[in-house]
């Protein structure tokens, strides 16, 4: 994972610079700078609006006693999207807008949730247990996966006398 971050911190700025130079050669230097400034101003306004909405939804969820799972995910996406918008460049701005805009954020949240859940199940004991249970289920009607014990559902009855 650290190698992935190192590559990202090296590759993304080079790609951003390439895209900025290509757009600059296509529409000119000053229009390119103006476009980057316009994206920054628009991004700051969207960050402010969506950040307030995410904070309000988080406060409402906590105030009503609900677990704020979706609200926390939205707040995190707004934070990451805002950070990407503050980074100069067209590619990071596109990614930032995707994370910030209300019509694209649910899709990003679903993708992120699936990614995190698959990662969680791949690296935890719970995930290994679920994979083993599935392997036991797939082994057939009478069989269990090797090394698994059979689970018998039951009830514990305490018959001890508690009189003194």
From TrEMBL:
TM helices/strands, residue ranges: 27-47, 76-101
Keyword Transmembrane helix found: yes
Domain of life per record: Bacteria
Region described as Disordered: 133-164
Pfam families: FxsA
Record field: compositional bias (Basic and acidic residues): 155-164
GO cellular component: membrane
Keywords, in A-Z order: Membrane, Transmembrane, Transmembrane helix
Full protein name: FxsA cytoplasmic membrane protein
Source organism: Carbonactinospora thermoautotrophica
The organism's taxonomic lineage, starting at the top: Bacteria, Bacillati, Actinomycetota, Actinomycetes, Kitasatosporales
């Amino acid at each position: 994972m650290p190698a992935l971050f190192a590559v990202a911190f090296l590759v993304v700025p080079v790609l951003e610079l390439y895209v900025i130079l290509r757009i600059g050669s296509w529409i000119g230097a000053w229009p390119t700078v103006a476009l980057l400034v316009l994206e920054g101003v628009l991004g700051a306004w969207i960050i402010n609006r969506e950040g307030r909405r995410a904070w309000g939804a988080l406060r409402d969820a906590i105030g009503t006693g609900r677990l704020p799972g979706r609200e926390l995910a939205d707040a995190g996406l707004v934070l990451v999207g805002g950070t990407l918008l503050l980074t100069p460049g067209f590619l990071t701005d596109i990614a930032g807008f995707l994370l910030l805009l209300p019509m694209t954020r649910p899709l990003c949240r679903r993708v992120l949730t699936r990614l995190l859940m698959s990662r969680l199940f791949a690296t935890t004991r719970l995930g290994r247990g679920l994979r083993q249970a599935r392997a036991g289920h797939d082994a057939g009607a009478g069989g269990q996966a090797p090394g698994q014990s059979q689970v018998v559902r039951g009830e514990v009855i305490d018959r001890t006398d508690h009189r003194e």
